[in-house]
Structure formats: structure tokens, C-alpha cells
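Regression test case RT-17, inverse folding.

Input:
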């Protein structure tokens, strides 16, 4: 009878394992056949070891959060890694006492209650367990403070909690203080505590602790554990174990598909709703604060996602850069748009009448150039591209010189997946038939979709900033450096989307003095002209644009340079200085 207090813990643990077994089993079973083969092929490879290392570094030590804010990182690490060590060392303690690791699962959890006698290494283990408990309690104390004032942890805004979130959080807050009190009460009665529990035991002795009081504290500790385990699968704490599963699948080469599937759901449940992504969202500048990625993932889990929240996003990718779990937030949102969108019914029959372009000479073309819609809408960029190619004597095909089809990316961003595929199939055929080894693009939006969705085989895809730098290095064009100071804006799709940061900068350094911006490269600000959000009003776009320009123009440059026609088109109406695409700067600097 006196040991019945282990029931809440035991029942809670069984409930948790059953729910996780069913959920994870269904998710893995619903992966594609190819993805399952990838898992089987990778299990006994270096990828498994790499996944284990990352699980420890991120799931237990919270390396990414530490980099963002050491205090926040310590709080997470003390709770996760501390609890892990408490369990591991608890099993070692049980082995030293009983001579086997095959003890009942509750023995390491309630060890001090069951063991009142000495065994080899007893004093060392007891004090070590007290130290680990103190380590965890320091994190619990920080968690209390975080709920009162999150700003000292580098977080300005936090997410609202659901009932199960509150239940699991409160239970978690009580688990370790109750363990301290329960073990201290036992230490007061039997003298089997360590440096921490004996200190608290001395206070219990003053109030004449009784076996009944001891039993109540162990019951409370067990109940708090049971409640946390039961609430965990239905709360944000589901991420604790799901994140590890996600890390392993990512290392095994599993990738998101355009259609929402079980791997998408694993990513959704890997979100801890830490709120780190909220502060970096530029929508706050326009007082839009209910559609950030953390809320979208929560809405997906709760099945209450609205079109207003889903589509009102710049898809700039800043949130992905700070996500400690490395969730593909943009792709998840696009997959939801595909689910929610009514397909545009068109067969694009007019595409078949578009002309085929020929190389500038009769020889095998070096390059096939695709300008794209936005470049055609900013003719200065198009003319500069052609001027540079002609100057370098590049034998190229101008694929959409007179008429052409959209690359398909804007339709993809809107969720029109089937319509986008028709454009992709048409363009892909023309590119492959050209025989050119290089596809040159002057729009990052096009660049992104060509890289991700076109499957062009051996054809190399290059943005004009990359290709022009190669022309300079090969001596096919030479540039004259001016005295102008230049600040460069990283377009979202080129930088965060395709990881092209250094080539544009190297090229600009050859034309003038390059200045740095306060927020650049991976944390560059969006221009606000994004095609990812067609519901954002023009006044809101202007507010976001003004904030971005404020950062970019802080050092009073002579020229604001970008490498995206949409960014140029957006910025040019908001400043009194020259706004130029990198192609225009290069064309003007050619000797």
C-alpha cells in the first residue's frame, strides 16, 4: 500500500510511450517508399553518428539557443541535459546498489525513498545526484523569471499557452522542487541525503517531519511527473522527443515535399514554440503580429489555420535563420497554401506558339539567359545584362527575349502547384533543348525555382552576380573602380534562399567602396516587395520598406545596390540616392 505513490508516474509514463509509439509509428509508416529506403540505407553509416551528435548538441545542450542568448540557452540546457543526466546517473546509482541495470523503471526516479542503507559509492552518488538536482533547479528558477520578464532572455514576445501547455508547464515547474522536498523529507527521517537534501532536511527536522508528510511529498512528486507525461504529447513539449526524430530523418536525407505529408507533420511537432522566430519578423513593424511562423505551426497542429494568417507572410526566410530546430518554415507554409488553394484551371496552350531563340552565333551556346518577368519590367537591368554578355563575347541564347513563360515561382508561392508545374515543364524542355551548359538568370525569384524544382541535370544554374564575377576573373571583362561608396542589399531569395552572399560583394568591391550594413547576409531585411504576400497593403509595405532603408542607408552610401529587379523596383521609390542592380553597376564600370 505504501508504495502506491509510484502509480501516477507509472501510468503517465505508459500513456506517453503508447501515444508516442502510435504517433511516430504512423508518421514513419506514411513516409514514401523511397524515404523508407533512405532510412534503411543510412542507419549503419556515419549519418547516424552525425545525427546523434546533433541531437546532443541541439536537443540536450541547445547550442543554437546558447548562441542567441547564453541565459536562455543555459535555462534550456539545465532542464534538458540536467534531467537526462539525472536519469542516466540514477540508473548507475541503481546498478551500484542492486548489481544490475534491470531494475524497475521507478527505482532511479524514487531511489532515495527505497534505499536507506549504504552501498559502494553511496556518498559520492548521493552528492552527485544532489548536484544535478541543484543544476536543474537553477534552470527552473530561470523559467519562473522568464514568464515574468522574457526580455532579459532576449525575447521580446512570447506565445500564448493552450490548456495542455499550461498543465505540462506547471507540472514541469513542480517536478524538481517537489523531488527536492521529498528526498529531503526522507533524509530528515533516515539520514540518507546529500549536501543539498541534508541542508533542506535540517529545516524539516525543525518542523518535526513525519512519515505521513514524507509520503505526501512523494505522492506530489509522482503526480507532477504523471501529469507532465500525460500532457506532453498534447502540448508544445511534444517537441522534446520529436525534434530528435526530425534530426535523424533530416540526416538520412528526407526532405519536404510540395504536398503536406507525414514528414511535414514531424517538423510541425518539432516546434517548441520558443518564440525566437517572432522577434525577427518584419511584420511587427506594420503591427501585424498573429501570423508569424510559430503561430502558423500551432494553427496547423490545432487544425484552425485561416487563409488570412496563411497568406499574409513575406516568405523572406528570416525566421528560418533563427529557428533552433532548423524547421523549413517557408516550405511548410507553401505546402499549406497548396492544400488550401483552388487550382487555376488553364492548360497554357498559348505557350506552344512562343518562338525558339537562337544563339548569337551559329556555334554551340555557352549560356542560355532567362530574364524573367521582373527583369523585363526593369529594362535597365536587361540592357545591362546584354551589354556585359556582348562585351565578353559570350555566345548565348536569350530564351525569353521577345516572349516567354513565367518561371512558375510566383504561382508556387501562391499555392498554385499544378499550374506552376505546367510552366516548369515548358521552360525545362526549352532549356534542355538549347544544349547550353549554363543557365543564367537575373532574378533571384527565378533562380530559386530553377534550383529547387526544375531538375535540369548537368546544367549549371548561375545568378548574374556569380557569372559576371567569373567573367572578371577569367579576364573576359575588366572593371574600373570608382570612388563611389556602395551598400549592398541581400535579396531574400538569393541570400537566404540560395546561399549566395559573397560573389555579389566580391564583384561590387571591384567597382567601388563596399560598406557593411547593420543587418546583412543571413539576417538581411526584406525590401517588402515580396511576391510571397499578395494580401499585404501598400501602406504596410511602405512602412516595412522604410525600416529596411533606414538600416541600409545608415552610413550614407552613394549607391544602394541590389541583385534583384523586384528589390530595385521597390527601393527606387523610397530614396533620393541611386538604386542600381549589380548588373547596371558592372555595365557602367566596364572599361
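Golden output:
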Amino acid at each position: 500500500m505504501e508504495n502506491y505513490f509510484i502509480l501516477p508516474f507509472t501510468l503517465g509514463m505508459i500513456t506517453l510511450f503508447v501515444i508516442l509509439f502510435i504517433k511516430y509509428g504512423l508518421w514513419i509508416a506514411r513516409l514514401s517508399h523511397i524515404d523508407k529506403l533512405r532510412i534503411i540505407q543510412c542507419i549503419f553509416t556515419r549519418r547516424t553518428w552525425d545525427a546523434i551528435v546533433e541531437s546532443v548538441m541541439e536537443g540536450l545542450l541547445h547550442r543554437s539557443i546558447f548562441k542567441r542568448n547564453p541565459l536562455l540557452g543555459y535555462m534550456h540546457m539545465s532542464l534538458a541535459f540536467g534531467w537526462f543526466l539525472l536519469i542516466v546517473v540514477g540508473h548507475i546509482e541503481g546498478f551500484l546498489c542492486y548489481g544490475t541495470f534491470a531494475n524497475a523503471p521507478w527505482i532511479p526516479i524514487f531511489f532515495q525513498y527505497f534505499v536507506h542503507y549504504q552501498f559502494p559509492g553511496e556518498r559520492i552518488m548521493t552528492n552527485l545526484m544532489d548536484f544535478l538536482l541543484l543544476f536543474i533547479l537553477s534552470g527552473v528558477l530561470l523559467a519562473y523569471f522568464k514568464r515574468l520578464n522574457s526580455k532579459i532572455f532576449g525575447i521580446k514576445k512570447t506565445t500564448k499557452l493552450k490548456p495542455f501547455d499550461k498543465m505540462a508547464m506547471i507540472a514541469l515547474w513542480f517536478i524538481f522542487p517537489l523531488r527536492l522536498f521529498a528526498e529531503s523529507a526522507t533524509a530528515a527521517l533516515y539520514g540518507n541525503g546529500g549536501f543539498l537534501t541534508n541542508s533542506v532536511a535540517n529545516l524539516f527536522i525543525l518542523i518535526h517531519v513525519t512519515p505521513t508528510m514524507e509520503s505526501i511529498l512523494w505522492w506530489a512528486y509522482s503526480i507532477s511527473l504523471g501529469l507532465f507525461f500525460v500532457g506532453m504529447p498534447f502540448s508544445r513539449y511534444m517537441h522534446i522527443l520529436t525534434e530528435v526524430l526530425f534530426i535523424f530523418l533530416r540526416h538520412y536525407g528526407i526532405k519536404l515535399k510540395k504536398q503536406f505529408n507525414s514528414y511535414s507533420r514531424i517538423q510541425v511537432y518539432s516546434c517548441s514554440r520558443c518564440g525566437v522566430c517572432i522577434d525577427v519578423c518584419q511584420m511587427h513593424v506594420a503591427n501585424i503580429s498573429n501570423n508569424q511562423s510559430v503561430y502558423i505551426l500551432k494553427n496547423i497542429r490545432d487544425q484552425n489555420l485561416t487563409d488570412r494568417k496563411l497568406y499574409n507572410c513575406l516568405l523572406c526566410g528570416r525566421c528560418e535563420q533563427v529557428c533552433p530546430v532548423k524547421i523549413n518554415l517557408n516550405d511548410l507554409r507553401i505546402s499549406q497554401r497548396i492544400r488550401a488553394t483552388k487550382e487555376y484551371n488553364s492548360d497554357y496552350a498559348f505557350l506552344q506558339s512562343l518562338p525558339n531563340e537562337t544563339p548569337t552565333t551559329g556555334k554551340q551556346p555557352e549560356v542560355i539567359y532567362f530574364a524573367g518577368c521582373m527583369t523585363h519590367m526593369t529594362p535597365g537591368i536587361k540592357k545591362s545584362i546584354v551589354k556585359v554578355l556582348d562585351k565578353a563575347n559570350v555566345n548565348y541564347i536569350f530564351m525569353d527575349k521577345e516572349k516567354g513563360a513565367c518561371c512558375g515561382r510566383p504561382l508556387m508561392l501562391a499555392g498554385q502547384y499544378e499550374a506552376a508545374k505546367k510552366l516548369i515543364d515548358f521552360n525545362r524542355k526549352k532549356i534542355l533543348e538549347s544544349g547550353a551548359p549554363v543557365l543564367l538568370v537575373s532574378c533571384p525569384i527565378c533562380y530559386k525555382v530553377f534550383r529547387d524544382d526544375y531538375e535540369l541535370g548537368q546544367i549549371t544554374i548561375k545568378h548574374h552576380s556569380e557569372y559576371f564575377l567569373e567573367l572578371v576573373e577569367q579576364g573576359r571583362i575588366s572593371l574600373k573602380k570608382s570612388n563611389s561608396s556602395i551598400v549592398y542589399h541581400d535579396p531574400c531569395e538569393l541570400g537566404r534562399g540560395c546561399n549566395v552572399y559573397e560573389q555579389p560583394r566580391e564583384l561590387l568591391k571591384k567597382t567601388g567602396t563596399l560598406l557593411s550594413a547593420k543587418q546583412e547576409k543571413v539576417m538581411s531585411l526584406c525590401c517588402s516587395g515580396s511576391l510571397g504576400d499578395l494580401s499585404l497593403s501598400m501602406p504596410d509595405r511602405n512602412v516595412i520598406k522604410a525600416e529596411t532603408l533606414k538600416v541600409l542607408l545608415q552610413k550614407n552610401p552613394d549607391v544602394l545596390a541590389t541583385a534583384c529587379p523586384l528589390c530595385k523596383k521597390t527601393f527606387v521609390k523610397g530614396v533620393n540616392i541611386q538604386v542600381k542592380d549589380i548588373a547596371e553597376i558592372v555595365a557602367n564600370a566596364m572599361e
